[in-house]
Design goal:
It is built from six helices and no strands. With 190 residues, it is mostly helical. Helix 1 packs across helix 2 (46-75), helix 4 (103-134) runs antiparallel to helix 5 (140-159) and helix 5 (140-159) crosses helix 6 (161-189). The longest helix is centred in the first third of the chain and has 35 residues, at 10-44. 16% of the residues are buried.
């Protein structure tokens, strides 16, 4: 049973809801503006945008590693997981250092690995399409076409990692711009 003295009056409820909507409206508009700014920054220079992101993540990992390592060295007590802290802190610090110093090389390697994965996916799709063809399935031709396109995109990504990454980042930038403008319009319309 509800307590009648705790009941919210209709006018009070409206004021509370209006305040919540105003805060939500501001958050939506700010989010939209940030998305538009990021989209424009990526469109202007997609390679440097990715490298900056990798460098920022590297600095964060390096700081995390340092913050984890210092207490582990000071404590040295296995009961408090100092060995685990040493390992995790060391891995974070080394990975962060590599990311902060060599962001371009890291992006190139990771994007090439993605290309290999896409190529292998395409080859497997072509193999599956062959099985569909042997079964007489009408899906054999679309599956073969999809597999060939996927494998070709994998080869392009491996041979030209920076160019393919630039294209992917430009697509992401356009998506950010569209979503950001939509968020701003939605927020202003609230």
């Amino acid at each position: 049973m509800r307590n009648c003295s705790a009941k919210v009056m209709p006018g009070e409820e409206r004021v509370t809801m209006r305040g919540k909507l105003e805060r939500t409206k501001a958050a939506i508009i700010i989010t939209g503006i940030v998305m538009v700014v990021l989209g424009v920054a990526i469109m202007i220079n997609p390679i440097n945008a990715v490298q900056a992101l990798v460098r920022i993540i590297g600095v964060i990992l390096l700081a995390y590693g340092a913050v984890t390592l210092v207490p582990a060295f000071m404590r040295g007590d296995p009961v408090h997981n100092a060995p685990a802290d040493l390992v995790m802190g060391g891995i974070s610090a080394v990975c962060g250092l590599v990311m902060a110093i060599f962001p371009g090389a890291l992006v190139n390697v990771v994007w090439s690995i993605i290309g290999v994965i896409v190529l292998l996916t395409g080859v497997l799709d072509i193999t599956e399409a062959g099985a569909l063809r042997r079964l007489g399935s009408p899906l054999a031709l679309p599956a073969t076409t999809s597999g060939i396109i996927t494998a070709a995109l994998g080869v392009i990504t491996i041979l030209m990692p920076m160019a393919s990454m630039t294209m992917a980042m430009l697509v992401a930038a356009v998506a950010l711009l569209i979503d950001g403008v939509t968020e701003i319009i939605f927020g202003l319309g609230m």
